[in-house]
Specification:
The protein has ten helices and eleven strands. With about 300 residues, it is an alpha/beta fold. The protein binds S-adenosylmethionine.
Length: about 300
């Protein structure tokens, strides 16, 4: 079993969050009380033995430590499930409706930043064949589809259905397919765009993803992205924002809870990582509160 930082105990169902990335409970997926009484129960004994073996072999399903960064559980399945379930309410985040309404001052600031980000993206020299990865409900796809031949991909069908409706409403066309953002490129294109995806790339895999992004592009092709800054009012009312941790809880309107990778990158570290991945003219700036705006040339 993969190491988990937060889980319901497999035996008694008690919710538990581990204290460190090496806790035996996380491998066994048992709460401390059940680990403590493993001597009395065959199932608990079996789980504990397996957990000890997994811990000494290195955590299956975790990424390798890189540059002193602690290993992070592979949350890709949980992230996909979260965004599939969130598809009907995803645009509330952009529109500041429902749980995402944070009062007139913060909502106004959000809308102003969203306008700045839109104008920034619209002003980039994006043309020709364009690929958008992890496109979700297609908030940015309508803008991109007006600039060239757009292929938009996401791991989930449900948000893509919304993207399709959005493009149709604008009388725009695009190639829309389910495709994992980590899948190897099948061609080289003129421009690659990712909205709010880099923050879902674990720190230990940033170089891997940026190298993949570069392989999507023809020489001279443009990589552009918009992402999150850790403003406390950027998410839903019940969402805490922390730049310190890499895994964050996310709730849906119906109370269901998931975990996602959420890394709040600093502009300078992204610029350095883009250059290290072979990009030139790497430039990452910010809007006043909420967004990172990045571009680089392959
Ligand atoms: C934060 S949303 C961003 C959506 C959109 N790009 C935007 O800017 O509004 C992240 C998206 O990534 C998708 N996703 C999650 N894991 C993925 C993966 N491994 N490959 C491709 N898409 C993935 C989710 O379905 C979701 O639509």
């Amino acid at each position: 079993m993969a190491f988990r930082t937060a889980f319901d105990c497999l035996w008694c169902g008690t919710a538990h969050v581990v204290g460190s990335p090496d806790d035996l409970e996380g491998y066994a997926q048992l709460c401390p009380a059940c680990v403590g009484r493993a001597g009395e129960n065959g199932f608990l004994r079996f789980r504990l033995k397996a957990a000890l073996a997994e811990r000494s072999a290195g955590a299956p399903g975790t990424s390798a430590p890189a540059d002193g960064v602690p290993p992070v559980e592979d949350l890709s399945g949980e992230m996909k499930a979260y965004y599939a379930a969130r598809a009907p309410e995803y645009d509330d985040w952009y529109l500041r409706t429902g749980r995402y309404s944070r009062g007139p001052v913060h909502d106004l600031a959000w809308t102003a930043d969203l306008d700045s980000a839109t104008l920034w993206l619209d002003g980039l020299p994006i043309q020709g064949e364009i690929v958008e990865l992890a496109a979700g409900t297609g908030w940015w796809s309508a803008l991109l589809a007006g600039k060239g031949v757009l292929s938009l991909y996401d791991a989930n069908e449900l948000p893509l259905d919304r993207a399709r409706d959005r493009l149709l409403a604008h009388g725009l066309r695009a190639h829309i397919h389910v495709r994992d953002a980590w899948a190897e490129p099948d061609r080289a294109v003129d421009a690659l765009y990712c909205g709010f995806w880099l923050s879902h790339v674990p720190r230990a895999r940033l170089t891997e993803f940026l190298e993949l992004a570069r392989r999507w592009l023809k020489p001279g092709g443009l990589f552009a992205f918009i992402d999150s800054r850790p403003d406390p009012h950027s998410g839903a009312v019940d969402q805490e924002v922390s730049a310190e941790v890499e895994v964050a809880p996310r709730r849906l309107a119906d109370g269901r809870e998931f975990r996602v990778v959420k890394v709040y990158w600093q502009p300078a570290e992204l610029e350095a990582a883009l250059r290290a991945a072979g990009f030139s003219r790497a430039e990452v700036t910010t809007t006043s509160r909420f967004f990172l705006l990045g571009s680089a040339t392959a």
